[in-house]
């Protein structure tokens, strides 16, 4: 039920935090009622419900029979939107997670911004055993919101949460992808209509609301405010400029926001856990390295110790105890003491060191990876702040507002204020934040009040400028501004000076970039900028298929229209020039990917592409042409004469050739040679199945051919090329499609004579070598299935050994690919478990690496260090592999792969993939 005339009864702010979820609200029809916190009923002990202002953003997935039904009874019927039976959320989840390792889902919010995993796949708890139910980061976030909704609706049955005016907070640095996934979580929770506001802004809105009566006096000497928000998982910086109108009232404008940093209280807890782990291991013969699950458990214990030792009137020291597992729960426990001074020094000097304003934060790909999350490489928040202020030039801030639970520690607040005062040569004004844990939720309500004109409002519009990458040959560093910084929310801006000719029914894509640092006047609409001359971030590509009624395929002229929505997300439409009512929404492509490349459209395509397409048309085109089989066989050589050696063909050219082949796919049926050549070229031109914004669409077209199989399936060369094509493009196939390939893989290897006799004609046969290379490329199948593929590979090695034959090079290569610790296109949660890989390494260590160099290559990849304990092998085994690599004089990079987190070079990447990537396409991982 809503209020009078269908209006909401309440304004509700939700802080969906990494550590805690907090809800605040106000009467929508009484501006004087004030903002209140919503006490969230939750399980605080088995069978005991209590109301708390903070709902820990945690899920615990109990084992079957671990908890009785009565232990989980809530005042309302609760069904987990993530689909896990008996899941525990909130305070009891934290309690149980500290006792039992490997069953606690934490930091879901940090995962939403981690683009190198599939954020909609069930991957959490990270590194948990196979018998533990898993959920996606999106579903975990949705479950906290759904829990809040159920608790609210129980207390206010006449005013359901979904009918209220809702504001959800997000980090200011969340990109468009993370914002879209946050909205997806809200929809999954049954909250389809809400607005987003950035957390630093919300914290400042809370201050404005609390001090509204004295605001003019409080800000009289203020010209620029820094809001520093250090939460459990992220750090955000925002600058707010202060001016005054003719009446002396403050006018507030948010002028700058910082980059996304996965850096916060979790990192501090992790650093303390490493210290405690070292102390616990000191009295242990051979040391003691905890599993990922046990380290997560220790982090929870260290978090409690940190908060105790940094609190007011803290004790001199605290004891951290890690309970044993199973029957050794008590006897197997270990403890270590940490002192107040140690914790203060570690957190203050480690995360807030004294630095100069000229220092910059360390950058690089090889940041800390724990529990699968790529934490910021540089843990010094003060250094990140110095970099932020250098990027956003102008007067240094004279006023500081701190937010986030870590600033309950006076030492941290003092250190940050002292650092800023040192930089500007004068003390700062510190704005009082009475409760950092709840300020963001209260501020979200204050923002809703400000939108109604009932509270001070911060101006500023879009926090960043957005640009369309032009893609002119030789000018791939140029972009045109399509939404200037400061553009008002809800105001559509159309780029009228650039027109695009697009064909209906065909996919279209655009590449956008956003500014990370802008000083002075923002660029104007239509202004050209040099992307190499400043700090810009390439966004996920925008792509769509412009559908029209009745199969219309005509070409139309469109303009781009851009708006920063009232919800707080970027929206881009193609608008027909002739009829503005014809509009097509372009959507960000959010599928996880690891490619890093320049803009495809911006790279020059060979001017001889027309001749190449004509050659393809001659062989595969619809019009019958007298073509000798020899000419079909030589198509590749003919293409290379005009375009250069195929190894030099870059991604844009390759995709144009693929598109030409795909349009003429029927022509492959003319003969076995036609089909063989078509399959070979199509796979080569679409490899590795991703890397271009339209590759998902291309893969859909290609996959539609799979069920029909090969036309000339009795010809061995055609069958071999069929499987080569699918092996080359596996990176563009989803889990379900790769599992379909796995079915054919299994049939070709395991079927007996009778089964082969009844083989469906659409199931293409394949040799053991074909299947070996295919099976090794299926990175998106579950790790348990990969382990089965690995077992088959080990059988091949064993057979060769019993015959006195040398180990097969291809088998060892496939074992390296199947058991790799760092996949190329798959998600890290799908790797083979480290215990199984350890068994495989034992087999490899028994081989003579001097005689069988591929065994050393395979071992290096199986032992490759990722920094993620759930994937890495044990230290003793790692040392053994490293010793053997050094003894046989293995390449330095192979040794480095085992001893530290590093990147593969081009030669190793080519060997692992089986061939080179298209020039300009790089895989990072």
Explain what the structure shows.
The structure is a single chain. The model is unreliable at 326-331, 365-369 and 590-604 (pLDDT under 50). A hairpin with a 2-residue loop joins strand 4 and strand 5 (48-52). It is built from 29 helices and 34 strands. It has 925 residues and is of the alpha+beta class. The protein starts with 9 loop residues before the first strand and ends with a strand. The strands form 9 sheets. Strands 1, 2, 3, 6, 10 and 11 form a 6-stranded mixed sheet that branches. Strands 20-19-12-13-14-21 form a 6-stranded mixed sheet, sandwiched between helices. Helix 7 packs across helix 8 (292-309), helix 20 (735-750) packs antiparallel against helix 22 and helix 23 (783-802) packs antiparallel against helix 24 (809-818). Helices cover 36% and strands 18% of the residues.
Features:
925 residues; 6-stranded mixed β-sheet; 18% strand; alpha+beta
Q: What is the compact description of this entry?
A:
The protein is α+β, with helices and mostly antiparallel strands and 925 residues long.
What's the shape? Answer: globular
Strand content: 15-25%
How large is the radius of gyration?
30 Å
Structural class: alpha+beta
Helix content: 25-40%
Individual helix count? 29
What is the terminal-to-terminal distance?
50 Å
Mean pLDDT: 85
Extract low-pLDDT stretches. Answer: 326-331, 365-369, 590-604
SS elements, strand count: 34
Q: Which sheet architecture does the biggest sheet show?
A: 6 strands, mixed
């Amino acid at each position: 039920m809503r209020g009078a005339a269908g209006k909401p009864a309440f304004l509700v702010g939700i802080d969906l935090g990494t550590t805690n979820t907090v809800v605040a609200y106000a009467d929508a029809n009484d501006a004087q009622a004030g903002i209140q916190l919503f006490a969230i009923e939750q399980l605080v002990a088995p069978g005991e419900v209590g109301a708390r202002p903070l709902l820990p953003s945690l899920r615990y997935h109990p084992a079957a029979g671990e908890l009785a039904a009565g232990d989980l009874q809530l005042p309302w019927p609760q069904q987990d939107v993530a689909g896990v039976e008996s899941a525990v959320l909130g305070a009891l989840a934290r309690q149980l997670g500290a006792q039992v390792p490997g069953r606690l889902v934490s930091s879901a919010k940090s995962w939403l911004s981690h683009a190198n995993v599939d954020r909609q796949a069930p991957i959490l708890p990270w590194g948990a055993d196979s018998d533990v139910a898993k959920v996606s980061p999106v579903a975990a976030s949705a479950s906290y919101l759904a829990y809040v909704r159920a608790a609210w609706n129980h207390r206010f049955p006449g005013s359901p949460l979904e009918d209220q005016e809702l504001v959800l907070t997000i980090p200011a640095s969340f990109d468009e992808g993370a914002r879209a996934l946050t909205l997806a979580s809200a929809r999954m929770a049954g909250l389809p209509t809400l607005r987003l506001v950035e957390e630093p802004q919300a914290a400042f809105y809370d201050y404005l609301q609390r001090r509204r009566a004295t605001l003019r006096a409080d800000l009289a000497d203020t010209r620029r405010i820094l809001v520093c928000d250090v939460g459990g998982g992220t750090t955000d910086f925002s600058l707010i400029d202060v001016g005054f109108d003719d009446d002396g009232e403050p006018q507030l404008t948010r002028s700058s926001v910082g980059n996304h940093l996965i850096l916060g209280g979790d990192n501090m807890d992790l650093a303390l856990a490493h210290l405690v782990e070292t102390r616990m291991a000191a009295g242990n013969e051979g040391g003691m390295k905890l599993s990922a699950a046990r380290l997560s458990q220790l982090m929870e214990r260290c978090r409690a110790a940190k908060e105790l030792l940094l609190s007011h009137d803290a004790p001199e020291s605290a004891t951290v105890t890690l309970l044993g597992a199973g029957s050794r729960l008590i006897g197997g426990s270990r403890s270590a003491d940490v002192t107040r001074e140690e914790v203060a020094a570690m957190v203050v000097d480690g995360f807030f060191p004294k630095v100069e304003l000229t220092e910059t934060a360390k950058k690089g790909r090889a940041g800390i990876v724990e529990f699968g999350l790529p934490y910021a490489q540089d843990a010094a928040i003060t250094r990140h702040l110095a970099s932020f202020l250098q990027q956003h030039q102008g007067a240094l801030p004279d006023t500081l507002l701190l937010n986030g639970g870590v600033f309950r520690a006076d030492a941290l607040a003092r250190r940050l204020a002292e650092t800023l005062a040192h930089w500007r040569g004068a003390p700062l004004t510190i704005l009082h934040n009475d409760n950092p844990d709840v300020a963001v939720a209260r501020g979200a309500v204050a923002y809703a009040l400000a939108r109604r004109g009932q509270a001070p409002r911060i101006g500023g519009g879009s926090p960043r400028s957005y640009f369309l990458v032009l893609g002119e040959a030789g000018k791939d560093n140029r972009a045109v501004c399509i939404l200037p910084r400061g553009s008002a929310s809800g105001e559509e801006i159309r780029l009228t000076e650039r027109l695009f000719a697009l064909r209906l029914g065909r996919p279209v894509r655009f590449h956008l970039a956003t500014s990370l640092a802008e000083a002075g006047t923002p660029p104007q609409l239509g202004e050209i900028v040099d992307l190499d001359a400043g700090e810009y971030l390439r966004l996920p590509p925008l792509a769509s298929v412009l559908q029209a009624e009745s199969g219309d395929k005509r070409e139309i002229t469109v303009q781009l229209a851009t708006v920063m929505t009232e919800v707080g997300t970027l929206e881009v439409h193609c608008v027909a020039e002739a009829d503005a009512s014809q509009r097509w929404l372009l959507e960000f492509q959010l599928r996880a990917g690891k490619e890093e490349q320049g803009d495809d459209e911006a790279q020059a395509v060979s001017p001889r592409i027309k001749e190449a397409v004509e050659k393809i048309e001659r062989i595969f085109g619809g019009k019958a042409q007298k073509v000798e089989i020899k000419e079909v066989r030589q198509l590749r050589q003919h293409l290379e004469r005009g375009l250069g050696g195929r190894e030099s063909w870059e991604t844009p050219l390759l995709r144009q050739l693929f598109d030409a082949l795909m349009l003429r796919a029927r022509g492959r049926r003319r003969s076995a040679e036609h089909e063989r050549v078509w399959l070979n070229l199509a796979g080569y031109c679409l490899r590795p199945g991703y890397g271009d914004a339209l590759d998902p669409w291309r893969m859909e077209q290609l996959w539609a051919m799979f069920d029909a199989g090969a036309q000339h399936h009795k010809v061995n060369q055609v069958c071999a090329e069929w499987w080569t094509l699918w092996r080359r493009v596996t990176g563009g196939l989803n889990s379900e499609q790769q599992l379909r390939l796995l079915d054919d893989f299994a049939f070709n290897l395991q079927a007996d004579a009778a089964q082969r006799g009844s083989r469906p004609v659409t199931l293409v046969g394949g040799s053991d070598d074909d299947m070996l290379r295919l099976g090794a490329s299926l990175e998106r199948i579950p790790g348990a299935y990969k382990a089965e593929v690995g077992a088959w590979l080990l059988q091949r090695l064993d057979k060769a050994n019993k015959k006195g034959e040398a180990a097969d090079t291809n088998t060892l290569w496939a074992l390296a690919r199947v058991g790799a610790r760092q996949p190329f296109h798959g998600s890290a949660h799908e790797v083979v478990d480290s215990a199984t890989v350890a068994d495989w390494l034992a087999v490899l260590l028994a081989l003579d690496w001097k005689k069988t160099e591929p065994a050393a290559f395979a071992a290096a990849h199986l032992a490759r260090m990722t920094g993620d304990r759930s994937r890495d092998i044990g230290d003793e085994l790692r040392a053994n592999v490293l010793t053997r690599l050094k003894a046989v004089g293995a390449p330095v990079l192979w040794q480095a792969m085992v001893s530290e987190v590093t990147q593969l070079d081009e030669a190793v990447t080519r060997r692992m993939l089986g061939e080179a990537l298209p020039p300009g396409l790089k895989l990072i991982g």
